[in-house]
Design goal:
Elements lengths: L10 H17 L6 H13 L7 E5 L5 H13 L3 E5 L12 E2 L5 E2 L10 H11 L5 E5 L2 H4 L7 E6 L4 H11 L3 E9 L5 H8 L1 H8 L15 E4 L17
Parallel strand pairs: 1-2, 1-6, 2-5, 6-7
Antiparallel strand pairs: 3-4, 7-8
Length: 240
């Protein structure tokens, strides 16, 4: 990242981001690796400056990733909207599973809990709280009413059911050229969601887009392509 001049910001700012990431990691529990969060940082920095949309984080645990991303949000002049129950993993019946790296994992109700005040406190100490808005509640309750354009979204929710909810409500808001990253690409049940053509077509309302990293990496990346222009002479729907 420090050697990558194509990121679009000067070396001094890249160095500031890296120092910030390591400082947060030192003081706040972060269940991700630095290179994983840098994938999303790169996605944010790659957004065209004239592309509308906020940044979204779905699932923040103790606020470590939020504190890291808030600095980048401030740098690029975008607001970071953080969705979380602040009660941990919801009740679920998803079985334990062997992930693509050969580890058996499961997610119990209440696991990965970080209370709202704890998260806000960590972001105030180690991030940029002024760049953040927090939306408290279960995704099924909070995301349907969210209507803001999204430039980039970072989804770290562990469950296939929560992944479906995030894709169903966030992907339609993602602007053409925007990026959605999932931190759960190592989980077979989540992979099934991303590969499910019927889900994309029937619940998200679009054909399944290209998804980088499937079956290979923990971070999956989807870049939303611009809609193809209508062929010349094609009928335009009334009211369009």
């Amino acid at each position: 990242f420090l050697r990558d001049g194509g990121v679009g910001i000067p070396f001094g700012q890249r160095l500031r981001i890296v120092r910030h990431l390591y400082r947060v990691h030192l003081f706040v529990p972060c269940p991700h690796r630095q290179e994983e969060i840098l994938t999303y940082v790169r996605a944010i920095l790659s957004l065209p400056r004239d592309l509308p949309g906020v940044l979204v984080e779905a699932g923040c645990f103790k606020g470590g990733s939020t504190a890291k991303l808030s600095l980048v949000a401030e740098m690029v002049g975008r607001r970071l909207v953080v969705f979380d129950s602040f009660e941990g993993i919801p009740a679920n019946d998803e079985p334990r599973q062997w992930n693509i790296f050969g580890t058996n994992v499961g997610f119990a109700q209440g696991e990965y809990r970080g209370g709202l005040e704890e998260v806000r406190g960590n972001v105030e100490r180690y991030g940029r709280i002024g760049a953040c808005s927090f939306v408290r509640g279960w995704f099924d309750d909070t995301m349907p009413g969210f209507r803001e354009p999204v430039g980039a979204a970072f989804v770290d929710v562990d469950l296939a059911s929560s992944t479906r909810t995030c894709l169903r409500y966030l992907y339609p808001l993602l602007q053409p050229g925007g990026v959605l990253c999932s931190h759960d690409g190592h989980l077979p049940l989540v992979i099934e969601v991303f590969e499910d053509d019927a889900f994309w077509q029937g619940e998200v309302g679009v054909p399944r887009p290209p998804i980088r990293g499937l079956h290979r990496t923990k971070v999956l990346t989807v870049v939303k392509e611009a809609a193809s222009p209508a062929p010349a002479g094609a009928a335009v729907p009334a009211g369009a």
